[in-house]
């Protein structure tokens, strides 16, 4: 199980599905060798420094937090039990209400759909959790091969612009 990186006053919190086996084994978020999370975070301009999974403990320095829908690791999110995801959706809502970041980004539309109970497309969403706006990026997992890196990067750049607008408001 990976500990959350959450604190009051964050600009952005990423919500993942659950830790993969590699992340659980290494004890770091998004540790899979083909996961694009860390490169996209930097390439989009959300963080100034190139980070790797080994730097996940530094993420709070950038006003960014990390959590998961389900804390139990698995080979695939398909291995999770329905009750785990229902309970996880309530826990994510509770965490976001408690910490109130400006923006919550769901790393994969399936996570958002579990929390809000409706289909979605990547991008800004109309729902808020308390004062927290919501956004969906395509999963950065290598298992999500439908979109290539440039397409995923475009969503991360859109996320950065959305966050900049929220900070300016």
**DSSP summary, beta strand count:** 5
User: Which architecture would the CATH scheme give at its second level?
Assistant: 3-Layer(aba) Sandwich
Q: What does the average pLDDT come to?
A: 92
Distance between the termini: 36 Å
How many separate domains? Answer: 1
Tell me the number of helical segments per DSSP (H or I, 4 or more residues long).
5
Structural class: alpha/beta
Instruction: Tell me roughly what share of residues is in helical segments.
Output: 25-40%
Strand order of the largest sheet: 2-1-3-5-4
Name the CATH class: Alpha Beta
Determine Rg (CA atoms, Å). 14 Å
Instruction: Please mark out the parts with pLDDT under 50 across 5 or more consecutive residues, or reply none.
Output: none
Portion of residues in beta strands equals: 15-25%
Give the ordered list of helices and strands: EHHEHEHEEH
Q: Predict the CATH topology.
A: Uracil-DNA Glycosylase, subunit E
Shape: globular
Largest sheet data: 5 strands, mixed
CATH 4th-level superfamily: Uracil-DNA glycosylase-like domain
Can you offer a commentary on this structure?
The chain has 169 residues and is of the alpha/beta class. The chain has a single domain, classed as Uracil-DNA Glycosylase, subunit E. The chain has helices at 21-26, 37-43, 82-99, 109-116, 149-168; strands at 12-16, 64-68, 103-107, 123-129, 132-137. The chain has a five-stranded mixed β-sheet with strand order 2-1-3-5-4. Helix 3 (82-99) packs across helix 4 (109-116). The longest helix has 20 residues, at 149-168.
């Amino acid at each position: 199980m990976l500990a959350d990186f959450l604190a009051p006053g964050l600009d952005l919190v990423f919500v993942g599905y659950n830790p993969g086996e590699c992340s659980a084994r290494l004890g770091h978020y998004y540790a899979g060798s083909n996961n694009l999370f860390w490169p996209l975070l930097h390439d989009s301009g959300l963080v100034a420094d190139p980070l790797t999974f080994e730097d996940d403990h530094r993420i709070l320095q950038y006003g960014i937090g990390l959590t998961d829908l389900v804390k139990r690791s698995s080979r695939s999110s398909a291995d999770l039990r329905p009750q785990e995801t229902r309970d996880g959706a309530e826990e994510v809502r509770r965490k976001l209400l408690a910490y109130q970041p400006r923006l919550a980004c769901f790393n994969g539309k399936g996570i958002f759909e579990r929390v809000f109970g409706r289909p979605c497309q990547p991008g800004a969403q109309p729902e808020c959790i308390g004062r927290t706006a919501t956004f969906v990026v395509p999963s950065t997992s290598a298992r999500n091969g439908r979109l290539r890196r440039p397409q995923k990067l475009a969503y991360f750049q859109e996320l950065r612009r959305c966050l900049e607008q929220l900070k300016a408001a």
